[in-house]
């Protein structure tokens, strides 16, 4: 059996806000996907931003750590950020494979000597478009199965602006140079994406509603009513992908986003190429 530690990147207030539009926390979303991809896995959830958080299972007894997205900002610092950096650092130094999306990438890059901050090229809301491999990403197992260019769910203002020394930037697009990255620290390896391979379109829609003001301020929608109509279309497409091909066409949603097995490639690749080989060696 695999034992996977799933760390929710949000603080208590962030988790409560998330639950106003989703029926589960970010950590619960990840746990559900991980157990679908690896039926032999048991997920142990923790909220390391909280001062009273206690690991449900020792790092030495876990096979991997996964860090979710968050509404926090690494550059603002503070105890909630520091505690998460400390957990990821401890996991990597203990030799654990670590995966993170969005916030997870920003935390890993920061603790390894890089910089995460507001993206000067602007935010990505809904989908990150036309992602492609860098030279370092060609043939990298994190991106196994991806076509030459792909779209992916994305919700972020912040991003990795300066990757840490010695890291390998694996993919980018015209909005952001660091869409996927490998970071090595101690005996551990971090793989992550700025985009969200874990999010279904209904969850993307819910998170867009939370970000409505930011979407309008970024000039991506003329007003919040238009944003909610866009989110409604995403939600409806999620619930009826075969019957609402008109919505897929109108939203520009391809199979790389619409088909769960394709959307979640990076998570499966992490399990297959980093986590399972390590457990077989143990």
UniProtKB/TrEMBL annotation:
<keyword id="KW-0378">Hydrolase</keyword>
<dbReference type="InterPro" id="IPR017926">
    <property type="entry name" value="GATASE"/>
</dbReference>
<protein>
    <submittedName>
        <fullName>Gamma-glutamyl-L-1-hydroxyisopropylamide hydrolase</fullName>
    </submittedName>
</protein>
<dbReference type="Pfam" id="PF00117">
    <property type="entry name" value="GATase"/>
</dbReference>
<dbReference type="GO" id="GO:0005829">
    <property type="term" value="C:cytosol"/>
</dbReference>
<feature type="domain" description="Glutamine amidotransferase">
    <location>
        <begin position="58"/>
        <end position="203"/>
    </location>
</feature>
<dbReference type="InterPro" id="IPR029062">
    <property type="entry name" value="Class_I_gatase-like"/>
</dbReference>
<dbReference type="InterPro" id="IPR044992">
    <property type="entry name" value="ChyE-like"/>
</dbReference>
<dbReference type="GO" id="GO:0016787">
    <property type="term" value="F:hydrolase activity"/>
</dbReference>
